[in-house]
């Protein structure tokens, strides 16, 4: 137990060192006494690191300084209090080591995955805004928490090769490829020319971080400087979609994309990207963001509203009939399965939105 007392004392003295430094400006004797104890503590720890025998006198010094008043007044309490000091020393060392490892793990996760919280990316204040995948409930018992803690280390180390990989966005496109034409969404913008680099956006229609990311990209000119393909991926966990009606919107998105498949850029009607643009940037007559409004509707109301939006974009009755047929078709189902495979198994997303551009994979909303 000698080493535990020494290490615990070193940890505590190290933590209060900054306050002692300030106090020492006014009380030099106090500072000298502190640094004397700090040197002894470091000497004990340093010897143990070098596999040398630790100085047991320091342990006694620590205990005597803590118990000197008790010895005189209540000598019978010295022995039990001495044992308590030993136990507390072990607890302090364990907590310190755990905190140190957790800090290192968080920093590694932030570098490798873009979030300091592997399980709940949205809970990390150091990373960009993000919508987490699946269920974010806390582990119910200590065994689950411990297991998750070690699993996260594996997730981090497995992500390191992806962190240093040269990512090519075009390798992850899914047919029909929906490339954002900024000029269709904003008259002041221009379409990205064919010599511009590719980019990939993996988005969920119901995710607020995706909304902010899309807006930032449009306003900053990202869609003009990158040929950006959109993958609409409704987050699902245990058979339940994270955001209401996001799966319906995704099906309408790809059904609309199929109408333009095979058309030249000049003949494409862009119902797909116009729909996403309206959801992310427009408001209802009551001032409610369309994204929130759609999430508040039941299935049939949301479907009717999507058809109304498509009519606003110029869709004919024939177009609406085709889209209604396609959104329930096996073709759209296969597209969504491919998107899920790309997102989870190839790009290996840990949250939404995830962007691939300029040779890297980026978690969280663009612009942060």
Task: Summarize this entry quickly.
The chain is α+β, with helices and mostly antiparallel strands and 368 residues long.
Q: What key attributes describe this structure?
A:
single chain; 368 residues; alpha+beta; Glutaredoxin; 3 domains; two-stranded antiparallel ribbon; 15 helices; 8 strands; 59% helix; elongated
Description of the molecule:
The chain has 15 helices and eight strands. It has 368 residues and is of the alpha+beta class. α2 (17-24) runs antiparallel to α3 and α5 packs parallel to α6 (142-164). The strands form three sheets. The chain has a four-stranded mixed sheet with strand order 3-2-7-8. It has a two-stranded antiparallel ribbon with strand order 1-6. It has a two-stranded antiparallel ribbon with strand order 4-5. It has helices at 2-15, 17-24, 28-49, 56-73, 78-113, 142-164, 182-185, 208-220, 222-225, 246-260, 271-281, 290-295, 299-312, 317-327, 330-346, and strands at residues 131-132, 198-203, 227-232, 236-237, 240-241, 351-352, 354-357, 360-363. A hairpin with a 2-residue loop joins β7 (354-357) and β8. It has three domains: 2-99, no CATH class; 102-161, no CATH class; 167-363, Glutaredoxin.
């Amino acid at each position: 137990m000698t080493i535990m007392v020494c290490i615990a004392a070193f940890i505590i003295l190290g933590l209060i060192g900054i306050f002692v430094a300030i106090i020492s400006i006014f009380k030099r004797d106090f500072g000298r006494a502190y640094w004397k104890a700090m040197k002894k503590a470091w000497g004990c720890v340093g010897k143990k690191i070098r596999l040398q025998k630790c100085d047991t006198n320091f342990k006694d010094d620590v205990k005597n300084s803590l118990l000197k008043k008790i010895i005189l007044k209540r000598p019978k309490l010295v022995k039990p209090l001495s044992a308590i000091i030993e136990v507390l020393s072990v607890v302090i060392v364990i907590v310190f080591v755990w905190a140190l490892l957790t800090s290192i793990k968080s920093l590694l996760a932030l570098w490798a995955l873009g979030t300091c919280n592997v399980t709940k990316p949205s809970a990390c204040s150091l990373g960009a805004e993000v919508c987490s995948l699946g269920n974010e409930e806390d582990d119910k018992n200590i065994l689950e928490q411990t297991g998750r803690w070690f699993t996260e280390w594996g997730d981090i180390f497995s992500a390191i090769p992806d962190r240093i990989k040269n990512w090519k966005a075009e390798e992850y496109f899914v047919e029909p490829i929906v490339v954002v034409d900024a000029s269709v969404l904003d008259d002041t913008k221009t379409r990205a020319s064919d010599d511009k680099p590719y980019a990939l956006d993996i988005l969920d229609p119901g995710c607020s971080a995706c909304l902010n990311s899309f807006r930032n990209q449009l306003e900053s000119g990202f869609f003009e400087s990158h040929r950006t393909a959109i993958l609409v991926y409704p987050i699902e966990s245990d058979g339940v979609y994270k955001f209401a009606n996001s799966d319906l919107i995704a099906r309408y998105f790809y059904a609309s994309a199929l109408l333009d498949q095979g058309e030249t850029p000049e003949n494409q009607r862009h119902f797909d990207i116009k729909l996403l643009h309206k959801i992310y940037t427009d408001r209802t007559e009551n001032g409610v963001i369309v994204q929130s409004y759609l999430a508040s509707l039941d299935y049939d109301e949301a479907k009717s509203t999507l058809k109304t939006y498509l009519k606003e974009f110029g869709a004919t009755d024939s177009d609406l009939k085709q889209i209604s047929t396609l959104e329930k078709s096996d073709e759209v189902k296969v597209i969504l399965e491919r998107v899920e495979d790309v997102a989870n198994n190839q790009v290996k997303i840990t949250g939404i939105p995830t962007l691939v551009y300029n040779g890297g994979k980026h978690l969280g909303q663009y612009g942060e």
